[in-house]
Specification:
single chain; about 425 residues; alpha/beta; Rossmann fold; pyruvate-formate lyase- activating enzyme; OB fold (Dihydrolipoamide Acetyltransferase, E2P); 3 domains; six-stranded parallel sheet; five-stranded parallel sheet; globular
Length: about 425
């Protein structure tokens, strides 16, 4: 056995979505307050004693990534490079007993709501006084803010309610307090997230209060950009549109996963909305907020999806011209309602349909980006990279959307600051610009 292990130095790996990342950041803040040193995404040369892996268990690809990461550190443990492995998060919540049986080298598995248990296992004490505080691991100028946990929706393909439980809103006071802490720490851009942000408040206040929440957050001094993610089309609170339009620091951007447009598939997915209502909602949003950026995601290869239904989806994407769009291939998840259906669209065909849909979106994105040439816009500087500054406009969420490349000149730019640029050239998913 090697003897290079250093005590109280813990490696931390966070996989999956931004909601998972927020959980990781909350735990990291607690551990650091207990004088435990954290090494993010550690290499085996960094002399860690323990590794914590926050896993994702949403779809097959995410599960494979989580398992492969666990196996990597199991191998490191066998080689004496670390002594303990803790696994937490969605995969652990969903398959704890099975994982414990198949991966005995892991010292402990924790579910999604067992943060205090992890701290205790590491010899620390949960510090209530840190409530609303966390150590962000994103670049210091932007972060994510989770306003609720779980989900009450019954989408047939989705395992999240099985993993995360029912929708539980945080109090408005808690969210405002955390936002003030984040802005006071230097955060300029906050991305609101939860499994369904439009459902916010129903459990606490007996009504949807997302419009009111966003209005209050927009009034916090120093918050330059507030961006809305993961809205749900059924029951979308139209009052929200006025709030977005009226507040200059709320990004004119709505992330609204639609998943499909075929009425039969929408019914089978239990989305509680029709093709016509979907189209009308998009028209309403765009009429209320001219120039709005709409981001959506689609699922292809859902059980029974016919060529005709896929063609209907292609036509819809071509007509709606979403500014931003992603595509998932259907993942057949046990214990979901759709699991009783036959997963009858072959994997190769699913991927082919995803590629076809993204090819349409690529053309749309190029068309939209080309129209931006000559425009002047406000951007935030994210990164200094290879002769360029990488920036984003309010139309672009971190990690998933377009980037703006600003060629370096004699004027140095600071990461996390805003500037005005003029768009000079366009590609399908990137823009090029110069300082004005």
């Amino acid at each position: 056995m090697k003897t290079k292990i250093k005590p109280h130095r813990i490696g931390f790996v966070s996989l999956g979505c931004a909601k998972n990342l927020v959980d990781s950041e909350t735990l990291i803040s607690q551990l650091e307050a207990n004088q435990i040193e954290i090494v993010l995404n550690p290499s085996l040369e960094q002399e860690i004693q323990t590794v914590i892996i926050n896993t994702c268990g949403f779809i097959n690809d995410a599960k494979k990534e989580s398992i492969n990461t666990i196996l990597h550190f199991i191998n490191a443990k066998k080689n004496g490079d670390l002594s303990r492995i803790f696994v937490m998060g969605c995969l652990s919540q969903r398959y704890k007993a099975q994982l414990a049986k198949e991966l005995p080298e892991v010292d402990a598995f924790f579910g999604v709501n067992e943060l205090k248990e992890i701290i205790h296992e590491l010899g620390g004490r949960y510090k209530q006084e840190l409530h609303g505080e966390r150590r962000t691991t994103t670049p210091s100028h932007y972060t994510y803010l989770k306003i609720a946990e779980g989900c009450d929706r019954k989408c047939s393909f989705c395992a999240i309610p099985l993993i995360r439980g029912k929708h539980v809103s945080r109090s408005m006071e808690d969210i405002i307090q955390e936002t003030e802490f984040l802005v006071g720490s230097g955060v300029r851009e906050i991305n609101l997230i939860s499994q369904d942000t439009t459902y916010y408040g129903i459990d606490l206040y007996n009504k949807r209060r997302l419009p009111e929440l966003m209005n209050k957050l927009a009034m916090i001094p120093g918050l330059d950009w507030l961006r809305l993610h993961y809205t749900y089309p059924d029951g979308f609170p139209l009052k929200l549109l006025g709030i977005i339009k009226e507040n200059p620091n709320i990004c004119k951007y709505i992330d609204i996963p639609l998943q499909h447009i075929s009425d039969r598939i929408l019914r089978s997915m239990h989305r509680n909305i029709t093709s016509l209502k979907t189209r009308n909602l998009i028209d309403t949003i765009r009429s209320a907020i001219p120039g709005i950026t709409l981001r959506t995601t689609m699922i292809v290869g859902y059980p029974g999806e016919t060529e005709q239904e896929f063609n209907e989806l292609k036509r819809f994407v071509g007509e709606a011209k979403f500014e931003r769009m992603g595509v998932f291939t259907y993942s057949h998840e046990e214990d979901t309602q759709a699991y009783s259906l036959r997963d009858d669209v072959p994997g190769k065909l699913k991927q082919g349909r995803a590629n076809e849909l993204m090819a349409i979106q690529e053309e749309i994105s190029l068309e939209i980006n080309t129209r931006r040439i000559g425009e002047t816009m406000k951007v935030i500087i994210d990164e200094d990279w290879n002769g360029y500054y990488i920036a984003r406009s309010e139309m672009d969420s971190p990690e998933v959307d377009n980037e703006i490349l600003i060629k370096k000149t004699g004027t140095p730019l600071t990461i996390g600051t805003f500037c005005q640029v003029k768009i000079t050239a366009a590609e399908s998913f990137d823009l090029y610009a110069e300082l004005t």
